[in-house]
């Protein structure tokens, strides 16, 4: 019998990628707003610079980082190559914006032309791609077995500290699965990045097309839940509740489709792996009922999980790519701002958000989580942890200025608003207490699809 260990130690299995998926992305929930493409922050005009040509040998990759407030362009002239599992088209130019970190890998060799301002650009033959593709091959065998037996496919939790390439590995494994005709669920519970919505959210998407080279997965209608903070530690109780809720809905979706069920689930996690963060990882593993955990570049975490989780959960230690770059707190903050900006304005400033006033009386605004009180001050039978998931009504005030608001799909306050998905996001750009209105930046024109709004701790200054 072929095992995960034997696959991981086998030679490269790149010849597995023979079929391609060209189906329409499944819409997880009906969306009432056209929120556009979640792309990169903004597009800058290509600098007039001489292009560089790189000739890549077999099993090597070109790595480059785009300078701040600059842009770069890549074109494949000869051969074949891929970016995080998505194949590049020959003689097509791909644009990358400020701060982009790109790796183009080739199994058989290629020639690439790079134009623009980059902080660094070099070719490396030291990559973990063989290990990654063999991991995919092992997962694919599990999917094939699940398809034959009409059972559930593999559920993979990708864990590790910050800046080890967890999101990239999830994207790569998802793309490889899609290229073999699978339809995996990609879930993101890293609230610091918010790949499915905005920072401060978690979400999931059924993927049936490979990620776009420039824009990533086209999140036309992901399932997204409001969390409201940048770290799971800010409201541990709420975070675990939402992760469990997301897992429950994914289970329902898998029950509705044999293809999705056998394709499995790939889950990206936050880089918080100590203390309560480690407990959150274990709870996520239980909520999603994972059978494989990929630990990136953290032997301590690998051994902890081996000791604490059941034997049926296969835990593998994978190396990180040498191209992974550590980010400072300032860079992380810039990345969050860019993520919000791209939501409203698009990759190439090709989206045009709307600005309009909202009357105080037309909406109901809430914050999830009340200040903690001593047990002695709480009502009989209530625990202090319960306050973390309590819905607190807010009176509109100047303190709303620049805060991100989630538009809840709940139609009335009688709904379980905390565990209801959101339809989209707004930013408060002005508050007029005299007129009892506040101004919002919105992806679509008025009226709002629903009137229940949830406040985030996350703020955004709309300065272009």
TrEMBL record:
It is found in: Nucleus. Residues 160-346 form the Clp1 P-loop domain. One of its GO terms (biological process) is mRNA 3'-end processing. Residues 351-462 form the Clp1 C-terminal domain. Keywords: ATP-binding, mRNA processing, Nucleotide-binding, Nucleus. GO terms for molecular function: ATP binding; polynucleotide 5'-hydroxyl-kinase activity. Residues 55-146 form the Clp1 N-terminal domain. One of its GO terms (cellular component) is mRNA cleavage factor complex. The keyword ATP-binding applies. It comes from the Eukaryota. Pfam families: Clp1, CLP1_N, CLP1_P. ATP binds at residues 61, 101, 163-168. Its main location: nucleus. Required for endonucleolytic cleavage during polyadenylation-dependent pre-mRNA 3'-end formation. Belongs to the Clp1 family. Clp1 subfamily. This is Protein CLP1 homolog.
